[in-house]
Amino acid sequence: MEKDSKLEENELCAASHLALDIGGSLLKMVYFTRNSSRSFDQEADGSSMNGLTTSNDDLHHSLLDGRLHFYRIETSKISECIDFISSKLLQRSGHQCNGASIDDKNIIKATGGGAFKFTNLFKEKLGATLDKVDEMDSLVSGANCLLKTVHQEAFTYIEGRKEYVQIDQKDLYPYLLVNIGSGVSMIKVDGNTKFQRVSGTSIGGGTFWGLGKLLTKCKSFDELLELSREGNNRVIDMLVGDIYGGMDYSKIGLTSTAIASSFGKPVSDSKELQDYKSEDIARSLLRMISNNIGQIAYLNALQFGLKRIFFGGFFIRGHPYTMDTISVAVDFWSKGEAKAMFLRHEGFLGAMGAFLSYEKSGLPDAAQQLLQ
Amino acid sequence: MEKDSKLEENELCAASHLALDIGGSLLKMVYFTRNSSRSFDQEADGSSMNGLTTSNDDLHHSLLDGRLHFYRIETSKISECIDFISSKLLQRSGHQCNGASIDDKNIIKATGGGAFKFTNLFKEKLGATLDKVDEMDSLVSGANCLLKTVHQEAFTYIEGRKEYVQIDQKDLYPYLLVNIGSGVSMIKVDGNTKFQRVSGTSIGGGTFWGLGKLLTKCKSFDELLELSREGNNRVIDMLVGDIYGGMDYSKIGLTSTAIASSFGKPVSDSKELQDYKSEDIARSLLRMISNNIGQIAYLNALQFGLKRIFFGGFFIRGHPYTMDTISVAVDFWSKGEAKAMFLRHEGFLGAMGAFLSYEKSGLPDAAQQLLQ
Predict the structure, then answer these.
(1) CB 3.0 to 4.6 Å from B212: which of A33, A173, A216, B224, for a disulfide?
(2) Distance of alpha carbon A44 from its chain centroid, rounded?
(3) pTM strictly above 0.90
(4) Amino acid A90: pLDDT
(5) Nearest 10 degrees: CA dihedral of B188, B190, B196, B200?
(6) Torsion angle (degrees, nearest 10) of CA A310, A314, A320, A322
(7) Mind listing the pLDDT tens digit for each residue in A197-214?
(8) What is the torsional sign of CA A6, A11, A14, A15?
(9) Which residues of B touch A276 (CB under 8 A)?
(10) Rounded distance between C-alpha atoms, residue B257 and residue B233, angstroms
(11) CATH code of the domain made up of B154-236+277-343
């Protein structure tokens, strides 16, 4: 696992093919640099530069003559992102390296709703044109590329055990892609460019973060996620045993510890918000949302006869309890027939897709490997 | 619509066949009285007696020689319910009316988890035995009976228009029964006593009430529901237009006003909980939960090829926005193929089922009509 919180001068010289995925809560960025012997990796230390945060993952994937950089920042801090692009990428690569700018025509591939929302801002501040790439197109091409190209991209996560899944490129389709951003999209993927958004839910990462912010003093998604590690959802959720006097409702397969009603306990507690621990609230919220997404995903997979469900999006962030809950939900509702799978580049599917939308011939040689 | 906030002496004399449905949040009670020329009605004025609240509905259904009484109270106030049974029903009917007690053997039919949880309490305080009736059995027999017997029991509710649905007794099955209590049960009903609980969700009435209690100063479910009438969910929810700069994401059929992420707006607002209006929070919460239930219900109906979905349970309470949201969700996800239907006795399905579990021969003549 490499640490790389700073872009080196020589990397910046050749920064190119900048692609953005500007979602409701997070902006994700991918770009390529030549002139580096480094591997294609996702920066790994979670450190930040100008407010841009690298990801906590340990992906390494060799490219011949360059590397891909992955960053994210809150969409609300988009001006910091623009400053970063302006001062670190456009200026240096354009001016100091004799014209090798992000793109010769000052075009930036961009997907997500923010590609529309911030068109004028990018034009005004950077003189750049956001070349819009459809959000679903991007998610699918990003996921397909990663699943086909990156070794050990997909894995299952059950009771704390991570197991990589071998993907047979010839037997990848069909599958259900569940992208958990602020909201959730569920896409039936039948081929390289053949897909349909079949469902979704508004109860997603934005709900976790938004409700979490209202209910606790947490300032960030990661803080909330971290808090949830120590929490006990039984303090907040009404369990079957709470209703049945400690007993299971075994006739219908519900144990006493199953959640009957998320956040149901405050109904009869004579407590106020400040009497509950933030940890417990965060845990309950995470479980409610993860379980619900797992259930709806499974019901959709069942409807379309899809055996494989891949979960991506920045909601997950490799968080053990999130993945465990989604896995348990899929296992429970499918009676063991289906398995949840996760993606190591979970949050960057859309940004990768936007990156790949640069015309194939225009992509650096190294990145072209990704398209083979 | 009759008002009847007090039980008359002559009604109490012949109170019999008391049945309870003791849920996680609410206790529902049904019993029969002879010696009254009144019709079988659900008390209509929402007034309370000893903490027991009658329902806000206008059901009238004629029985020959008596009437059924419907009450509910919060489960946490069960001691008030026991006092009511003790002082108003058992004592008067038992003592003042020469032995015509609730039940000669002091047996009370009871369903819901509380039938287990409060067994000892009823024995200790009333000397009564709770004769447990399975929760799903009760819901189904209650719903079947009401749908077959009560004129204008089922209705659709679309954009504020209530339309009663004619139920052909011979063509009732199969259907999906969605009971929204603290949690939600989804039951595929194939016949009088033939059914299977196929799904459910922990995001139900207890979630609305519990989260609502934590997020607002509301003291009761009804207060929260009332608040939601005046609220604007767009202040709290992240809409497609918020992400897409006011535009629709028309390619996948999402308008700019569609909710992308429930409670997603606080993510980027620099506001705290107290800066949001309780009305808006209540509205957003109601919509999130109603929409989610409608979606999961539809997905299950689809899985089992069920055309009809009946929604019951005390979460609904005849609330226009709740019914509208559920209707819209079912319509949206089914692309107009399925319709949500509601039940006038929504909250009393389980209690009715428990009532009907008194042996047929033991039921008063009038109530026997219900079983034909």
Answers:
(1) B224
(2) 15
(3) no
(4) 64
(5) 10
(6) -80
(7) 999 999 999 999 999 999
(8) negative
(9) 214
(10) 11
(11) 3.30.420.40
**B197·A292 Cβ contact <8 A:** no
Average pLDDT for residues A129-150, to the nearest whole number?
Answer: 94
Share of chain A above pLDDT 90, in %: 65
Q: Which of B119, B181, B243 sits opposite A24 (nearest CB)?
A: B243
Measure in Å the smallest separation between the Cα of B253 and chain A Cα atoms: 10
Task: For residue B300, give the nearest of A134, A249, A299 by CB distance.
Answer: A299
Closest to B191 in 3D by CA, of B178, B208, B174, B212:
B174
Give every CB contact of residue A276 below 8 A, 6+ residues apart in sequence. A235, A236, A266, B214
Return d(Cα B288, Cα A285) in angstroms, integer.
14
Q: What DSSP assignment string belongs to B112-149? A: STHHHHTHHHHHHHH--EEEE--HHHHHHHHHHHHHHH
For residue B28, which residues of chain A lie inside 8 Å, CB to CB? none
Contacts of B25 in chain A (CB under 8 A): 238, 261, 264, 267-268
* Cα of A251 to nearest chain B Cα, Å: 9
Over residues B119-139, the pLDDT tens digits come to 999 999 999 999 999 999 999
Closest approach of chain A CAs to the CA of B2, in angstroms?
31
Whole-number pLDDT of residue B26: 93
pLDDT surpasses 50 at A260 = yes
From the list A204, A210, A291, the residue facing B202 with the nearest CB is A291
Q: What's the confidence (pLDDT) of residue B313? A: 95
* Domain range A9-134+357-371, CATH class: alpha beta
| Interface size between A and B, measured as CB pairs under 8 A | 235
d(CA B335, CA B341): 16
Residues in chain B with pLDDT values less than 50: 1-13, 36-52, 54-62, 92-101, 371-372
B347: CB partners within 8 A, 6+ apart: B26, B28, B55, B72, B312, B313, B314, B316, B317
Q: How far is A59 from chain B (nearest CA, A)?
A: 28
Alpha-carbon distances, residue A92 vs A9, A99, A364, B197, B201 (angstroms) = 8, 9, 19, 63, 53
DSSP string, B297-331: HHHHHHHTT--EEEEESTTTTT-HHHHHHHHHHHH
The CA-atom distances, in angstroms, between B253 and each of A23, A194, A203, B290 are 18, 18, 18, 21
Strand pairing class (B308-312; B259-261): unpaired
Q: Judge whether B9-134+350-371 and B154-236+277-343 match in fold.
A: yes
| Domain boundaries, given as residue ranges, for chain B | 9-134+350-371, 154-236+277-343, 239-275
Chain-chain contact of B260 with A303 (C-beta, under 8 angstroms): no
Mean pLDDT for the stretch of residues A277-290 = 97
* Residue A58 CA neighbour count, 13 Å, CB half: 2
Q: Is the CATH code 3.30.420.40 the one for domain B9-134+350-371?
A: yes
What digits encode the pLDDT tens for the residues B318-346?
899 999 999 999 999 898 989 999 999 99
Answer yes or no: do B261 and A207 touch at CB < 8 A: yes
Q: What is the pLDDT of residue B67?
A: 80
Verify whether the Cβ–Cβ distance A259 to B202 is below 8 Å: yes
The predicted structure's pLDDT at residue A363: 62
pLDDT at A366: 52
| ipTM of this complex | 0.87
| Closest-approach residue (CA) in chain B for A76 | B268
